[in-house]
TrEMBL record:
PROSITE patterns: PROKAR_LIPOPROTEIN. Gene3D superfamilies: Periplasmic binding protein-like II (3.40.190.10). Pfam families: SBP_bac_1 (PF01547). CDD domains: PBP2_UgpB. Residues 1-21 form the signal peptide. Keywords: Signal. InterPro entries: Bact_solute-bd_prot1, SBP. This is ABC transporter substrate-binding protein.
Length: 416
């Protein structure tokens, strides 16, 4: 899952890149054709695929053409991005602008190293055009610390040939229908009716669908009866044999499991689209929005923002870069390659994503999805949830006992 998820919305690791001058370096002294001094700023990013790297380079080049008084040094951190970033922030030599994943954002927003962006944002920037859950991922106490550059969401992939074989028309629209379809598909096709990736990054929106929360006040809270109630159907489907995980069929991740025809339905991200088209070109499949739970839509969103270093000496130029890259023009240029989805509704509309038969469900989900981050201790909470949820998923202990143990250990680690 991580291998393919990080290759888009979260924008995966690239092969290499040299470390460039940080924000503390002086201006070049060079002038443009208008005689204006060129301001050099540094943008730190993690790596991506060659195709993504090319489009990103084109996007930055277009910005420089339109802003000839600014030169952007793109600093690719090839490995251990957050470790490198934290070291540079402590040392006072981090870039003027840098990528920040929503998963890491809560902790970093609390440290005071990020420049608040509210007073830079003008009315014509149209902050309300951003999908609300994605923008909120980078807000703390109503202060905006980052603007989401792109996103990836989850939707339902379903195998049309398997559905036809089972006499099913169209995707399930409710969770009850999903359970019924999974049973029929398993019985008729001899393969799993539904595939699951059993970790919190995929299940958080389900866990919180009954009104519970996996974390409250920087503490794990997933032994909440409402969380247990919400997740129990997943456990029950696994125990009844209609749900499988990728490892059950020797697959590395959900897209591979689905592509091999080992499950008829799967919740997966938009990164799976290109994978299936390239690796399983003969597979007959479609996508749909994830079935509703108690009448409510749900999905997960994974998003990354541009943020500004509070210690940057070139904040006005840094804001010019951030505002253009996250404005309609820059965002459309970056996201039209299809690796990740826009965070502005207007850009999704302009690119025709809402009307796209395959990509539409992912674009729609951006307005209501649960963002994968909202707590400074989420890494600890995530690890402990995954360890104990798996034991319940495999039938080794009841779900309520597993989550109670996971919560106890997570909160002990947080306290320590």
């Amino acid at each position: 899952m991580q291998k393919w998820m990080r290759s888009i919305g979260l924008t995966c690791f690239l092969v290499a890149g040299s470390l460039l001058a940080a924000c503390s370096s002086g201006d070049s002294g060079a002038v443009n054709e208008n005689g204006d001094e060129i301001i050099e700023i540094t943008l730190s990013a993690w790596g991506s695929s060659p195709a993504e790297q090319r489009i990103f380079a084109e996007t930055i080049a277009t910005f420089e053409e339109k802003h000839p008084h600014i030169s952007v040094n793109v600093d690719i951190v090839a490995d251990q991005y957050m470790d490198v970033l934290r070291t540079r922030l402590i040392g006072g030599n981090a870039a003027d602008v840098f990528f920040l994943d929503a998963f890491e954002a809560p902790a970093l927003m609390d440290t005071g190293v990020l420049e608040p962006l509210d007073h830079y944002i003008t009315e014509d920037f149209d902050i309300n055009d951003f999908e609300e859950p994605l923008l909120n991922a980078f807000k703390r106490n109503d202060t905006i610390y980052g603007l989401p550059k792109d996103t990836s969401t989850l939707a339902l992939f379903y195998n049309e040939d398997r559905f036809e074989e089972a006499g099913l028309e169209g995707p399930p629209e409710t969770w009850k229908e999903l359970e019924e379809y999974a049973e029929i598909l398993t019985e008729v096709t001899g393969q799993y009716g539904f595939g699951v990736v059993a970790d919190l990054a995929r299940l958080k929106f389900i866990a919180e669908s009954k009104g519970g929360s996996v974390a409250e006040n920087n503490q794990a809270s997933f032994s909440d009866p409402k969380v247990v109630e919400a997740l129990q159907p997943v456990i029950d489907m696994k125990q009844s044999g209609v749900v499988g995980v990728p490892s059950d069929v020797g697959a590395d991740w959900g897209g591979e499991m689905f592509g091999q025809g080992r499950t008829a339905m799967m919740f997966e991200g938009n990164w799976t689209i290109s994978f299936l088209e390239e690796t399983f070109p003969n597979l007959n499949w479609k996508t749909a929005e994830i079935p509703t739970i108690d009448g409510e839509k749900g999905s997960m969103a994974y998003t990354v923002a541009y943020v500004m270093n509070k210690d940057s000496e070139k904040k006005e130029a840094a804001w010019e870069l951030i505002s253009w890259l996250t404005g309609p023009e820059g965002m459309e240029l970056w996201t039209r390659g299809g690796f990740a989805f826009p965070t502005r509704a207007s850009v999704s509309e302009e690119l025709g994503l809402f009307d796209d038969e395959i990509r539409g469900p992912f674009a729609e989900a951006a307005s209501y999805a649960t963002v994968w981050a909202d707590d400074t201790n989420l890494p600890i909470i995530n690890n402990n949830f995954n360890n104990e949820f798996l034991s319940a998923f495999l039938g080794q202990r009841p779900l309520d006992e597993a989550l109670e143990e996971a919560q106890r250990v997570a909160n002990r680690e947080i306290e320590d």
